[in-house]
Design a protein that fits this description.
Elements: E1 4-10, E2 15-22, E3 27-34, H1 40-45, E4 52-56, E5 60-61, E6 82-84, E7 87-88, H2 101-107, E8 111-114, H3 118-128, E9 131-136, H4 140-149, H5 159-162, E10 168-170, E11 197-202, H6 207-215, E12 219-224, H7 229-233, E13 239-242, H8 253-262, E14 268-271, H9 273-282, E15 286-302, E16 308-319, E17 329-334, E18 340-345, E19 350-353, H10 368-378
Parallel strand pairs: 3-4, 4-6, 5-7, 6-8, 11-12, 11-13, 13-14, 14-19
Antiparallel strand pairs: 1-2, 1-9, 2-8, 3-9, 10-12, 15-16, 15-17, 17-18, 18-19
Length: about 375
């Protein structure tokens, strides 16, 4: 097991001692926490975590190892800046495991730190807000200085790091897990009717989102984040999808301009960062939450049906609900803090949600949203 003494130092001067594992390097990024009990491989590989040091609140991590089926980045690589855990499991016991967590992080140049009091760290971030931090084996004062000199998440364009350079067609489905339909009410039947073409703007898309689009019967063309509205329309799509991604939506004027140029021309569906960009294109505003929503157990209320969904979330920025008035209808609210979780602009055939209906990992309460997107094109 790990013997290298390491530290996690926060920009406010708080230092947590621990043991280094993974790569023999250091890391700087925004320190955040996620409350998921499972799915650490999906967390590590979610491009929305780019530029962040992620803390797992579950006490033991690594017991299921790493496999080649569950990565959420299209390139299969981890996207986090660093990884913080309480205890690294000494045993890997899942039949699908192909590699230990330690070996996986080392191979990909990512440092982890274990034996941290993650309960204390999470309470500190909850009370004082997410902030920059640094992980390394250097002196704590040196790491604090690194954390303080790192750029803040507000105003930071991280999408450029993770968006593809060229367009490509995505064909992979969820059949790898024996799944043949998005909605259990479909009885396992594949979508019928026309094979619609969807252009998906990749701001850091999770792989399972793209799989769900394929499972909905769409031909999916993935395009870079800086694709113009004119270039997207030239591909002759039936619908436009706006993906999740990292960083501050206010730092992406080029993406907002593209979305604005597409409004009213094709049905639009956005998730997470895509929700925020759609809101800004409509004229609403966004702001940074104190510590964000990250985990597999976030309660959301559908204001149309009054039903409550348990959702997967990963975001630090959110749409200002008040700014949606007169611009779009607010459709979903987070039950913990009343923040925006969905919008609909019926006059432009556009809707979006802040949470992740594709899960991976997490509950499948909201998979019906992909069916809703398809029905918009059936009209």
């Amino acid at each position: 097991m790990n013997t290298r003494t390491a530290y996690l130092a926060l920009a406010d001067g708080t230092v947590f001692p621990g043991k280094a594992f993974g790569a023999n390097t250091s890391a700087v990024g925004e320190v955040v926490f996620t409350t998921g009990m499972t799915g650490y491989q999906e967390v590590l590989t979610d491009p929305s975590y780019t530029g962040q040091i992620v803390t797992m609140t579950a006490p033991q991590i690594g017991n299921t190892g790493i496999n080649n089926q569950d990565p959420e980045s299209v390139d299969d690589k981890p996207q986090v800046a660093g990884f913080v855990i309480r205890e690294e499991s000494p045993i890997v016991s899942n039949y699908r495991s192909q590699e230990t967590l330690d070996a996986y992080l080392a191979r990909n140049g990512i440092i982890g730190i274990s034996e941290i009091d993650t309960r204390k760290l999470t309470r500190h971030l909850r009370d004082n807000g997410s902030q920059n931090g640094a992980i390394g084996t250097e002196a704590p004062d040196t790491l604090v200085d690194r954390a303080r000199s790192a750029p803040n998440m507000e105003g930071l364009d991280l999408v450029a790091r993770v968006s593809p350079k060229f367009a490509y067609e995505f064909k992979e489905s969820r059949a790898e897990w024996g799944v043949t339909a998005l909605d259990p009410r479909d009885g396992g039947k594949a979508p019928s009717g026309r094979n619609f073409h969807v252009v998906a703007f990749d701001y850091g898309a999770k792989r399972n989102i793209l799989r769900c689009l394929v499972d909905s019967g769409f031909k999916v063309t993935v395009v870079p984040a800086n694709t113009t509205a004119e270039a997207a329309l030239a591909l002759d799509p039936d619908g436009i999808f706006l993906s999740n991604g990292p960083g501050d939506p206010a730092a992406l004027p080029y993406a907002v301009d593209s979305v604005r140029g597409l409004l009213g021309k094709k049905p639009i569906f956005g998730i997470c960062l895509g929700h925020q960009l759609l809101a800004r294109a409509l004229g609403a505003s966004t702001y940074k939450l104190k510590f964000g929503h990250r985990g597999l157990n976030q309660p959301v209320k559908d204001l149309t049906t009054q039903r409550v969904e348990i959702t997967t979330q990963n975001h630090g920025f959110v749409v200002d609900v008040e700014s949606l008035k007169g611009v779009a209808r607010s459709t979903h609210l987070h039950l913990n803090d009343g923040s925006s979780e969905g919008l609909e602009a019926t006059d432009t055939q556009a809707f979006s949600v802040q949470y992740h209906p594709e899960a991976a990992a997490g509950p499948h309460d909201a998979l019906y949203l992909f069916d809703r997107f398809r029905r918009m094109m059936d009209r």
